Amino acid sequence: MVVIRLSRAGAKKRPFYHIVVTNSRNARDGRYIERLGYYNPNARGNDVRIQMNQERAQYWTDKGAQPSEKVAYLIKNFAEIASGKIEEQKTEERAKKDAVKAKAAKEAAAKVEAETKAAAEPKEEPKAEKAKEEPKAEEPKAAAEPKEEPKAEEAK
After folding, report:
1. DSSP H or E segment with residue 60
2. Core-most of 20, 49, 50, 131, by most CB within 10 Å?
């Protein structure tokens, strides 16, 4: 079966892909029938991100060649990727996600801070309550002590 897929080139950690038409049994970076273009995912500045002969890609798909998932995406969005619109959209999406994460982190920090304050405040309040309760507890003790003394005297 004939497929259109990416063949990796480039250095370690710096991928560069050739868009090729090949037999599905051939190795990823092996022999190919025709090279349709290239895709540089690390393109910066004035570097060309994608270059592809779309007429030949259409010819091969008409002949029955099956594009891989990534190649189908590249063919479909070729004009937008080449002009950089897709990269701008991804940058905007990342910024939105980062803003949402930052907001969630602030809310979590505020919640933890509020819980910490709430946990610190009740500790002080029970002390005040205990202080109020202790005199009440002492009064019955004082009343109980004189009762014991007379009993002790009666026993003598």
Report:
1. helix 54-62
2. 20
Q: Which two tokens stand for residue 153?
A: 């005297």
The length of the chain is 156
Tokens linked to 143: 């009343």
Tokens found for residue 74: 């590249």
pLDDT tens digits along 23-65: 999 998 889 999 999 999 888 888 888 899 989 999 999 999 9
Q: Are 24 and 3 in contact (CB under 8 A)?
A: yes
Kindly list the structural domains of the chain, giving each domain's residue range(s) and its CATH number in brackets, ordered by start: 2-83 (3.30.1320.10)
Pairing mode of beta strands 34-39, 2-11: unpaired
Asked whether the beta carbons of 43 and 36 are under 8 A apart, the reply is no
> Of 50, 70, 54, which Cα lies nearest the Cα of 62?
54
The encoded tokens of residue 59 equal 């010819």
Which residues make Cβ contacts (< 8 Å) with residue 17, sequence separation at least 6?
A: 6, 7, 8, 9, 10, 38, 39, 40, 41
Which residues are CB-neighbours of 67 under 8 A, at least 6 positions away? 3, 4, 5, 57, 61, 75
Q: For residue 65, which amino acid is it?
A: A
What is the pLDDT, as a whole number, of residue 148?
54
Q: Which residues pair with 23 in a beta bridge?
A: 2
